[in-house]
TrEMBL record:
Entry's Gene Ontology BP terms: adenine catabolic process; hypoxanthine salvage
Adenosine deaminase domain location: 14-357
This protein's name: Adenosine deaminase domain-containing protein
Record's GO cellular component terms: cytosol
Keywords from the UniProt entry: Hydrolase, Metal-binding
InterPro entries named in the record: A_deaminase_dom, Ado/ade_deaminase, Metal_Hydrolase
Domain of life: Eukaryota
């Protein structure tokens, strides 16, 4: 299930990742180690049993599919989060991700994180924020992977809870007053989308914009009301101006005003093909991605939650797009260019990655 062999050209591409949930990069090995370090009981007697637990097909939505005995993806993901307790744990998680990113030639990344999943377990927000901040700084030096992070509101928690978490985290942001520590420069959404449309968090988005942060909107695929969530993200949020990016958003294909809306507003999609490929047949899924391309919708390719998705990382996701959409090498380079342009990296970082990309493309000619 861990995808295709990575073509050397795909491996060599300098990469930008704009859709990865940091806790979705927690490897079973680190989970096992932290569980023992922090005395957190795991419902697995051996490491092999833990590994086997990743091989199940998650129940996509219990609200819709009923209970088949398997956990949902989010239940598995939040169960993994339990072992993260101290600043050092969050630091190690992030440093392992940045090391892995370097090995795949990721030059720049904007990981999603949240504090609410941790504070509700009694972990201080400072432990999360300081751990990631230290990794942001050390990872840029040690692994030469630069990062700007994205604070997520857990959308199945209340707006009030989210606002409180945001206010507590704000000293770690890169705010327009230049006062923050610079960990995160944007806000987004995470967790269960069922009956939780983006507009519920409009007050939080407006506040973040006032603080000088960017806004992206997670619209998972084939969820209940997915098309309405995409519509809100393009036309309604941020006082009608729309989000700057949409995470996933594949259901934009399902209503005729959405593709023109994405294009006219210049909103790009952060797609994660393997996440959809778990549930959609090859012949169904990849023509959809190809259609977005042919329609001129800007998108880039990302990994989502790689350790909970058969260990398929950004390179495996790019490989799937390359192989199953019939993209050329030049098309794949354009997809990387899209990621650079959709990112909120500084101009120097963008210029360096584009120059490296140009060099690689010219060497291929
Ligand atoms: N979907 C929704 N919320 C999430 C995910 C995801 O894949 N990962 C972490 N939070
Ligand atoms: Zn996601």
């Amino acid at each position: 299930m861990n995808g295709l062999e990575i073509d050397p050209f795909i491996a060599a591409l300098p990469k930008v990742e704009l859709h990865v949930h940091i806790e979705g990069t927690l490897t079973p090995a680190l989970r096992w180690k932290l569980a023992h370090r922090n005395n957190i009981p795991l419902p697995y007697k051996t490491y092999e049993e833990l590994l086997d637990s990743y091989k199940v097909t998650y129940n996509h939505r219990r609200e819709v599919n009923g209970d088949n005995g398997a956990p949902t993806f989010l239940e598995a993901y939040f169960a993994g989060c339990q072992v993260l307790c101290t600043e050092e744990d969050f630091y190690e998680l992030a440093m392992e991700y940045l090391e892995k990113a370097q090995s795949m030639n990721v030059r720049y990344t904007e990981p999603f994180f949240d504090t609410q999943a941790h504070t509700r377990r009694g972990i201080p927000a400072e432990a999360v924020l300081n751990g990631y901040l230290r990794a942001q700084r050390d990872g840029a030096v040690k692994y030469r992977v630069r990062s700007n992070w994205i604070f997520c509101f857990l959308r199945d928690e209340s707006l009030e809870d989210g606002l409180e978490a945001y206010r507590a985290a704000l000293p770690w942001a890169r705010t327009s007053d230049g006062q923050g520590k610079g960990l995160f420069h944007a806000v987004g959404l995470a967790s269960n989308e069922y009956n939780r449309p983006p507009m519920l968090f409009e007050e939080a988005f407006l506040l973040a914009k006032k603080d000088g942060l960017h806004v992206t909107m997670h619209c998972d695929v084939d969820q209940k009301d997915a098309v309405d969530h995409v519509h809100e993200s393009i036309f309604q949020v941020c006082a009608g101006k729309g989000a700057q990016r949409i995470d996933h958003g594949l259901n934009a294909l399902d209503r005729e005003d959405l593709i023109p809306g994405l294009k006219s507003r210049g909103i790009g999609l952060t797609l994660c093909p393997h996440a959809y490929h778990r549930r959609q047949a090859t012949e169904t899924l990849f023509p959809k991605i190809r259609k977005l391309w042919d329609e001129g919708v800007k998108f880039c390719i990302n990994s989502d939650d790689p350790t909970y998705m058969h260990n398929v990382w950004i390179d495996g996701n790019m490989m799937k797009a390359y192989h199953f959409c019939g993209f050329s090498k030049a098309d794949m380079a354009t997809i990387v260019k899209n990621a650079v342009e959709m990112s909120w990296a500084d101009e120097e970082t963008k210029g360096e990655i584009l120059a490296e990309l140009k060099g690689l493309v010219e060497a291929e000619k």
